[in-house]
Every structure is written in structure tokens, then in C-alpha cells.
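Lecture notes, unit on protein representations.

Consider one protein chain, 416 amino acids long.
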Amino acid sequence: MTTAPPSSALPTALGHIRVLDLSRVLAGPWCSQNLADLGADVIKIERPGSGDDTRAWGPPYARDADGNDTTEAAYYLSANRGKRSVTIDIASAEGQQLIRELAREADVVLENYKVGQLKRYGLDYDSLKQLKPDLVYCSVTGFGQDGPYAHRAGYDFLIQGMGGLMSVTGERDDLPGGGPQKAGVALTDLMTGMYATIAILAALTHRDRSGEGQYIDMALLDVQVAMLANMGSNYLNSGKAPKRWGNAHPNIVPYQTFACADGHIIVATGNDGQYQKFVEVGGEPELAGDLRFATNPQRVKNRDVLVPLLAAMVLARPRDFWIAELEKVGVPCGPINDIGEVYQNPQVRARGVVIDVPHPTAGSMKLVRSPMKMSVSPSTSDRAPPLLGQHTDEILSTVLGRSAADIAALRAKGVL
């Protein structure tokens, strides 16, 4: 575990960029967290009293020094490090004016409201670009700004199904437990956040060259279809929809999980030589000499005969035996770790993935460091996710020049 140095000690790639973040839940906040990791000043706008929906998506919650739960749900903590929180009632006229003033001082506006909702408030791209022509404005929705589904609400689980991911994820239909499965994390939300990050950085580069801002329309469904990658390409080039293979591979055998005497391993033999070494380690060299299994095309053709034989071979010995012996002969293999084992993994620990950062109520808090390691302008993950409204007074006074009396009056009216 690493204790992060203060951000002021690190040169950052986006230290000159301010982001006004009107998004909540996961896809938008994942994007703005990436930008914060790269040094951007991210101002997170939240509803007074409740804030981002994910603040309440617990347990578990962060714990204070005495082991008591705080009000910060672990889900919220995963996507909001490095930001500053301001509470504003965006439905009020005075709140909308504050958002307009903050947008004028920002380089980027990020939002994930339903199509047309912010236009009613005068906070859509066309309205805000009148105040700041070089503004980069990114909208994240389920289905995009046009098309027959544009006004539908989009959720990660729904999009994984509609966008084809679940059709190629899960055990084969003809095996026990067969059927569609969603990914174990909200993969479509996360990938949408990543694509939005890339698009924003590209738009900022264009702005720096041309002085021109632009609008970015990010849709979860678009992203899900795009990230089908080779599966989508397979269909487009064959006309045949790929199917589920569970933990097996459609074109390589063996390339799957196996149960050991005391757990599970992954074996990924990419060529015939690796397969031969695999069965030799298992004491079954005849499985390499058998013409039905000698080459990968033959193994694919005869997988239903071969795989049960390999499964029995692997089951006879413990996981550590297989990992140690297969590594010795260069056969790709590895354990299937639970998340606790992931964080105890020596490589994960050596890379300093987990860091301790100070927190106003928890004292200190464990977070996951950004994986972006850069030699000259490194990413920084040293600032804990903010408490609700933690920076309201600070930002309204320093960014907008509001007096303490003005801020108190806005708070008394329920705007903040």
C-alpha cells in the first residue's frame, strides 16, 4: 500500500483544465474521475440534501477511526476521487444562474440528464456556448440524442442485454447453468466513461489548436455495440451471430478454466507445443500423441471428447501444483482469485495499486490508484471523494466571487 503525496508536488497533464460535472451514478462520474486523476479541477454539482444517488448505495460504507460507518457508500467512493462537491438546486432559477456562471469559468461541461431536460433550464449546449463559445460539452445518455429510443432511460444491465454482450457471455446453452449473463461489474457504464474521457481530451486538443469548442454525444448503446470488437466483426463478416462459450474459447482448445483438487485454474494453450507440455505435466502424454488431439484444429473438432479427459487430469492435483509446474515449462496459466486475493497479490502490491488518503470523517481511506502511469505528468489519486457540499462555499467565493452574505442568503433559500 502506498501513501499518495500531495497533488501540489506533482505536475499534471490537465492542471489547466476545469470540468463542471453535472453527472451522477457511474458512466459520467467515471469519466470525470479520469480527468481528475489527470489533474483537472472537477467541480461536482449535487442535489442539496441527498447528492449523487450512489452516496446511498450501501452498505458497505467507509468507516471512521472507531470502526463506525460514515455516510459515504463504497459505491460512491469508487468513482468520485479527486473532485470538489458543490450543492446547487438546479431546478431553481437562482441555481441555474449559478450553473451558467460556473460554466463560463469551465473548459468542459459533463452531464447525463435525459434528452432535452437541461434545455428546459437553459443549460444545454446551445445555451451555454453563447456564454463560452470554446466550451467542450459532453452528454452521456443511454441511447443518444436522436433515434427512436432517444428518450428512453438507459441502464447498464439493460444495455448489456440489448447491445449483445449478454448473448456472448455465460455458459453454453447445452451445459448446466447455461444462459445469458451480465458482466460482474457495470462494464458498459465504465467503458462509456472511458470513451467519453477520450472524446473530451480530443475535443480539448482541437480547441487548443482552433479555438473552437464542440458538443459530444455519448450513448451507452453505441459504446456497447462498438466494444463487441471481434464478436461484432465475426458477425459482419460471416452473417452468423456468435454464441456463448462460457469460459471456453470458440477457436482454441484447451483455453478455459479447469477445476483442481482445491480450486480452479485457467489454462490458455496458444499452440500445439504448449498443449503437449500441459498434458506431459499432467502425466498424460498420450493425449498429445492421439491424432484426434495432436493439432489445435483437431482439438477444436473433438473438444467434447478431449475436455472431459483434461478435466479429470487437472482435478487430480491441487492448484499450486499446476501453477508452479506449468509456469516452469512456459504454459500460460493462472488462478481465479477472489477480490481479496487480488489485493494480496504480490504484483498488485508491488505496483502500489491501493493507496491511503486523508478523509474528513474516516480519518484515512483506502482507494484504488489510477492505473495511468506517466513519466513526466503523472496521474494523481491523492484526494478522497468529497463529502456532500464540502466545497460549496470555497468554490462560490473563489471561482464566482460571491460574498459570505450572498452564500448564506442562497443557502437560506434552499438553493445550496
